[in-house]
């Protein structure tokens, strides 16, 4: 595996999902896995639970895996 | 105080960071310790090895606007190169298992929430996910999709319509009383 650093910043593409508070981004062949969650509030819980999602490159769609998660770990 | 040792997938190196914002790599064969980066603000905690272990991606900020940039260390020449610019906060790099893209998060959405108590902005949903093509021959991950449709050809001269009684599917049929 090699990287062409020349002009690399110009080869950035946005993944077609909405703006959100993302965390735990990881990639598997053909898929991205990540969590979305609430913004931070003082003195109260967030306005929505943290949700684990998977994005498929094939159809460019995201699907919810689990709701109200605290964390996740992928197998090898 | 040192954090988070990460083995390279080829088993040749270990990356780790410390409380002072430094990032190190130790090479197992010669036990050589190399300082990869020294973040002036905070710590570096999102370092991750490429699938074959020949690059290390991470992020930190070294400029006055405090926006972090994603960087890649290449052990072959010992150089760290910035792969996102300083105009947007970019972080959490993660490698495509095929080694064609580097994905990362960046705060590039500025449609803020407006406070009700005083006039102020809250940019509380700023991030998008980005894909960086690592080589020039790597295709764009989301090329335009054609929405062209083919209109099926029909006969030029439509046949004269024959009116037939239509029975709707739900129409009650007559029940025959004959056996």
Number of strands of chain A: 5
Label the CATH architecture of chain B.
7 Propeller
CATH level 3 topology of chain B? Methylamine Dehydrogenase, Chain H
The helix/strand series of chain B, from N terminus to C terminus, equals EEEEEEEEEEEEE
Which strands sit side by side, in order, in the main sheet of chain B?
A: 1-2-3-4
Beta-strand content bin of chain B = 35-45%
Number of domains of chain B: 1
Radius of gyration of chain B, in angstroms, nearest whole number: 30 Å
List low-confidence stretches of chain A: none
The topology string of helices and strands of chain A comes to: EEEEE
Question: Sheet with the most strands of chain B?
Answer: 4 strands, antiparallel
Terminal CA distance of chain B reads 95 Å
Number of E-type strands of chain B: 13
CATH class type of chain B = Mainly Beta
The level of helicity of chain A is under 10%
| CATH H-level superfamily title of chain B | YVTN repeat-like/Quinoprotein amine dehydrogenase
Percent of residues in helices of chain B comes to under 10%
Largest sheet of chain A: 4 strands, antiparallel
Largest contact between chains? A-B, 32 and 43 residues
Number of distinct helices of chain A = 0
Principal-axes shape call of chain A: globular
How are the SSEs ordered, and which strands pair?
The complex is a heterodimer of chains A (76) and B (179).
Chain A: E1 12-14, E2 21-28, E3 31-37, E4 51-56, E5 61-67
Antiparallel strand pairs in A: 2-3, 3-4, 4-5
Chain B: E1 2-7, E2 13-18, E3 22-27, E4 32-38, E5 48-49, E6 56-60, E7 69-74, E8 79-82, E9 89-95, E10 101-107, E11 113-114, E12 121-122, E13 127-133
Antiparallel strand pairs in B: 1-2, 2-3, 3-4, 5-6, 6-7, 7-8, 9-10, 10-13, 11-12
């Amino acid at each position: 595996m090699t990287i062409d650093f020349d002009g690399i910043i110009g080869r950035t593409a946005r993944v077609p999902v909405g703006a959100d508070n993302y965390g735990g981004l990881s990639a598997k062949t053909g898929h991205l896995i990540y969590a979305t969650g609430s913004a931070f509030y003082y003195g109260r819980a967030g306005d929505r639970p943290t949700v684990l999602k998977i994005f498929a490159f094939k159809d460019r769609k995201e699907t919810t895996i689990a709701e109200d998660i605290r964390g996740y770990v992928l197998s090898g | 105080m040192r954090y988070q040792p990460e083995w390279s997938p080829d088993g040749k190196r270990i990356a780790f960071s410390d409380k002072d914002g430094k990032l190190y790599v130790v090479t197992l064969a010669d036990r050589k310790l190399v300082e990869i980066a020294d973040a002036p603000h905070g710590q570096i905690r999102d370092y991750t090895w490429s699938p074959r272990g020949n690059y290390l991606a991470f992020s930190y900020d070294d400029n006055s606007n405090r926006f972090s940039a994603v960087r890649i260390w290449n052990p072959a020449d010992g150089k760290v190169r910035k792969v996102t610019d300083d105009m947007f906060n970019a972080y959490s790099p993660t490698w495509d298992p095929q080694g064609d893209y580097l994905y990362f998060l960046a705060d590039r959405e500025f449609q803020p929430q407006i406070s009700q108590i005083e006039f102020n902005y809250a940019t509380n949903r700023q991030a998008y996910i980005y894909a960086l093509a690592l080589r020039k021959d790597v295709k764009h991950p989301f090329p335009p999709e054609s929405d062209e449709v083919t209109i099926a050809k029909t006969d030029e001269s439509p046949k004269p319509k024959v009116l037939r009684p239509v029975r709707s599917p739900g129409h009650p049929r007559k029940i025959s009383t004959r056996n």
